[in-house]
Amino acid sequence: MTARDGVVARRSLWHNRDFLTFWSGETLSLFGAQITVLALPLTAVLTLDARPEQLGVLRFLQMVPYLLFGPLFGVWVDRHRRRTAMIGANVVRMVLIGLIPVLAGLGQLNMPLLLMITFCVGMGAVLFDISWMSFVPTLIRDPEYLVDANSKLAATSATADAAGPGVAGALVNLLTAPVAMASNAVTYLGSVISLLLIRTEETPPPATAKRRIRTELAQGFRFVAGNHLVRWIALVGGLANFFLSATQPMFILFAVREQHIPSSVLGLIFSIGACGGIIGGIVCRRLISRLHLGRVYAGALCVAFVPALLLPAASGPTIVLGALYTVAWFLGSLGLTTVNIVIMSVRQNVTPPSLLGRMNAAVRAVMFGLGALGGPVAGLIAATAGVHEALWISTGCSGVFVLCGVALSPLTRLCAMPEAATDPADPADPTDEAADLARSRPPSVPEMAD
């Protein structure tokens, strides 16, 4: 056992009660959220007869809150206890998601109302995501366990990806899409209870009475722009989200309306395909410990996007289409999970703890700001050229993006995980602009491969 900063490290995360409690609650909410991932667009398509451009707007409103509110929420999270923020965010999402089946049952659900609820749920997701990414290092304490923690959370997310759509497809067939989303509200309640049971005390944030919000916002973006690793993570992640947001709704529309894939089969395709993410979460830590970190990242990025070309290219009877679609989603999930573990661990290692909230907010503002544009752009292309053509364009361009990302990103040249950054021992006066700049200067990174 080792000790860092006076904290004795546990033998493994299986002995960390509070992490296991958080992990359990997050697992529950992720399973419910994955039901909504399929049931929400199916509510728009099957219940409200949404047009392609409306489906693109729905996807846009899920992601644009990261751009509009992420930086402000990041400042707020760094000023307050993160567990409290997560509890509040999940209570809001529980209530809003629960409204959809109620309104549908009363015959009051319409497209503008669904779009409004989607936007507000997205705001809750922003606050929760920024908070948990900054809260996990508090639970872990020892940076050596960050990759292990992120691998466990990613494997859980992939498991939810696998089970959620299949359950959602069955529930949609049995109960209708809006009613299927009620289960998500119940899982958010379970997550809130698990967060209330966590006993780890967060270090009270330093007093910020004299600090200006504009200064703190600038500090987060300055750190992201100044650290070449985090800067590339944000850029590549943003473009990845753009193409994912363009591809997924067009694929759902194409599969349901043009290929006549039943919703239950579509859910099964997503479920089996998402099993690739489970494998990625399990093997990623071993790959990172045995192989060149940059090669793991580059290989996973290629696996994540190149197979997507199967989605518009596949043809044949339903069973052949289902098999090819499943292979594409399986490989994509495998690659994306591995990439996410790598970039999450790198970000958490190179960022000082006091900047984690603002860094995560700035990165996700870029990632989801670009990602939010994918749905509307694909929707406009589909409205003018056709859904199949829009799917070809989104998957083809994503292949070009991968080649550029692998060739240019400095992450592909990393030999090992960067050293963990620390806060200054003697923080400067928070009103001092020069001190703010010094505190946001990126830490050193390990030697890069030639």
TrEMBL record:
Quote the InterPro entries the UniProt record gives. MFS, MFS_trans_sf
Pfam families noted in UniProt: MFS_1 (PF07690)
Isomerase keyword on record: no
Would the keyword Membrane be found if you checked this record's keyword annotation? yes
Q: How does it sit in the membrane?
A: Multi-pass membrane protein
UniProt-annotated stretches for the region Disordered: 420-450
Sorted keywords for this record are: Cell membrane, Membrane, Transmembrane, Transmembrane helix
Q: What is the organism of origin for this protein?
A: Micromonospora solifontis
Q: What is this protein called?
A: MFS transporter
Q: Where in the cell is it found?
A: Cell membrane
Transmembrane residue ranges: 20-40, 60-77, 89-107, 113-132, 232-255, 261-284, 296-314, 320-344, 365-385, 391-411
